[in-house]
Amino acid sequence: MYFSSPLSSGSLFGFLVRLDLTLSDFCHRGAKCDLHLMWIDNESLPLIEIIVLDFLLFSLRRHFGNHRLDRIMQVGDKVKDFTLLDQYGKAFTLSENLDGGYLVLFFYPAAMTMGCTAESCHFRDLGAEFKEVGAKRVGISADPVAKQLEFSNTNSFDYPLLADIDGQVASDFGVKRRFGPIPVKRHTFVISPSMEVELILASELNMNLHADKSLSFLRSKVAK
What we know:
The chain has helices spanning 47-65, 114-125, 127-132, 145-155, 168-173, 209-223; strands spanning 2-5, 15-23, 31-39, 83-85, 91-93, 102-107, 135-141, 161-163, 187-191, 197-202. The protein is α+β, with helices and mostly antiparallel strands. Strands 8-7-6-9-10 form a 5-stranded mixed β-sheet. A 3-stranded antiparallel β-sheet has the order 1-2-3, covered by helices on one side. The chain has a two-stranded antiparallel sheet with strand order 4-5. Strand 9 and strand 10 (197-202) form a beta hairpin. The longest helix is centred in the first third of the chain and has 19 residues, at 47-65. The radius of gyration is 20 Å and the shape is globular.
């Protein structure tokens, strides 16, 4: 995880602080954190900036030392049931939408943005293919219902977009971001009729990967 700082006026890019989180013993001991400074230029920082940086690292250590980090969902994990509103304000409950088939749940950072539009449109364009393998597509983000409806109407989406406004479902799946303007990580989970995770896809930059890999996996399941 990276933090940028505008402190250095003589530096073109400033510097980044990298937070390396080694997750261990989630249930009892929480997270172990190691903080490292990563320079992206060759200029030396003035003493005042070193002091400010040291304070920042100290604050982060205190924060993560006292808070448990969310564990990202793993293949084989049982998914906790949830109910959220879709873009039409209708309640969507996970367990009620499996009915013998698979469900592809993809988390995207923000509706109406370029990358999320590309990803979501690719899921739309492969609608017939997902139907052939008996799988439902469901998008989810922290956007409110009205924004999800705008997103859906603008792009003629034929599947639910869920409004995880408080980020609770994202937290349960371990994809909620704790810092920065991007609320969730771009992850896709293929969920079985028994509510178990069978495939996880993570890519922030390859927008087509999420639908393509999900479909390929489901086709392989059908072929067996």
